Amino acid sequence: MNDEFPHGRFPREQALQLDAADPLRALRDQFLIPKRGAHEQIYLCGNSLGLQPRAARTVVQEALDKWANEAVEGHFTPPVQWLDYHALVRDALARVVGAQPHEVVAMNTLSVNLHLLMVSFYRPTQARSAILVEAGSFPTDRYAVESQIRFHGFDPATDLIEVQPDDETGIVSMATIASAIERHGPRLALVLWPGVQYRTGQAFDLQEIARLARAAGANVGFDLAHSVGNIPLQLHASGADFAVWCHYKYLNAGPGAVGGAFVHERHARDATLPRFAGWWGHEQATRFRMGAEFVPSIGADGWQLSNPPVLALAPLRASLEVIDNVGGIATLRAKAEKLGAYLEQLIDARLNDTLQILTPRNAAQRGCQLSLRVLGGRERGRALFEHLESIGIVGDWREPDVIRIAPTPAYNRFADCFDFVEAVAAWRAAQ
Q1: pTM metric for this prediction
Q2: For 180-214, what is each residue's pLDDT tens digit?
Q3: Which fold has domain 11-32+328-430?
């Protein structure tokens, strides 16, 4: 049990005291909190869809007004020209993921970016044709790697290697990952691994995984859908070849938001690297000459296909500004660790006969999310989940018996954690 938050006589008052002392308490006011009736929801689902920054509407409206007043000239007129709109988020994104600015680009969606970068970095041969992933990977990754393996004429039955978890919690230790890479190393063309596993909430040592993969002779890429904006990242230092992610979870850029990609700088000027080319990936200086020869832009921009979707990128600008204004991911992470520790303690103290925490107890091995197995089976789990939903407590469900709860530091409070636990305890007592 975590002893950082000793129980007092009035535990909810303790939560309110923690909120009053929180240096980020005012940040919540910069987001729109959905309501259930007259009351704000207890929204603990930022791992699935982040809340809307209040500033998003202003930034989108600016783009709409520019379109109305300038039409096509909006591509070229200051102060915010559409031609370089994706560049407006480049530096802030680089800070979030620990990369150099030219190594990142906001474009497409995660699944599209994953396929585009696998075109470049999954180059199977008869000797090296396998892709290594974690068992139970998110369907996007599973479908993408299976289809890429088949596209190249190989068989997923033999060339998709899934690393099984250590035990029934779903956790995969670094020792297990290292053993799998060592065992299959001579066959590996690519290691594709998550930064945070979506179902368990486990966070991984990406730098060590990249080191192991590259030492085995394989390329390495990361799916950071549940990592970006959640945990500190150092993509450049990791040495990974590529990474992909979405922006609609912890970066609060809206449903179906434009995704992001990282390509390590060692590939920045390699025009011979195979890729599916598009006009907007052509170097900007000669793009409008409409030449027949593709000359890729330096860095991640060279993987772009189409011009930036301005209306879709605008909310990301607003969200990244919020993060920068509070001091970056490190500031948010410090609060996230305290929220997670507090929720963990409350569950241990009050709900250990109802919920099993699957997510690692070590804060360095998890992000905001706690994955909670409902003891008693699927039917009981669904009943609890639906009850919480009916009273305005929003988490999300993963089959067969897991509720994911993510106290997100940008807008969640210690009182939200307390109220969640109180609601589960009341439901249990009523059974």
Answers
A1: 0.95
A2: 999 999 999 999 999 999 999 999 999 999 999 99
A3: Aspartate Aminotransferase, domain 1 (3.90.1150)
